[in-house]
Amino acid sequence: MERGHLDKIRSRILSSEDGTVFVPSDFSDLADANSVKKSLSRLVKAGTIRRIQRGVYELPLYNEFMQENVAPAPYKVAEALARNYGWTAIPSGDTALNLLGLSTQVPAEWEYVSDGPYREYTFGKTTLRFKHTTNKDVSKLPYQSALLAQAMKALGRDGIDERARQHIARRFSPGEQADILQSGKYMTGWVYEEIKQIFAGGTQ
Fold this sequence. Notes:
Blueprint: H1 2-14, E1 21-22, H2 33-45, E2 50-53, E3 56-58, E4 62-63, E5 68-69, H3 74-85, E6 89-91, H4 93-99, E7 109-114, E8 119-123, E9 126-132, H5 135-138, H6 143-155, H7 162-171, H8 174-182, H9 189-201
Parallel strand pairs: 7-9
Antiparallel strand pairs: 1-3, 2-3, 4-5, 6-7, 8-9
Helix pairs in contact: 1-2, 4-6
């Protein structure tokens, strides 16, 4: 029976894209927690996956040019951790700006706001920091809306220049803009007003 669990878990992992990050809860439908833990440990020893940190695993992405495995993507690790603990987590600060293309600077510390407790995780040279915030800022907003709201807060009311407005207008499709505007009642007032002006102005 345990061998069957291992085969099912391995099959799910290998059917995923290289660079995918997994946590034990991703396999809760295939086996009990103890069997999942043992199976993942065996797959690490076999070299099928690598352990990023306790309870977090990755199907390695190999770079042919560098001839080595690529470092795990911080945002994938953050999403996996949030998924494992049942948190809603949204990039904030410089992280939100980077992911939306409003900043080319790669953050040394990846910041997230979540409806979970304060937590900090380090792997390699990367630090992930989850900060608790009110549900209004994360749980009640669709991901794209929450991400944009956090990015605008990071820029600040007086830090949103015309270049940033043009970028934001181009970044979201008409359909995405409509969805973001629909969720506006859950945003901070000045953020929503600014978004309305940006989307009304388009890319002209």
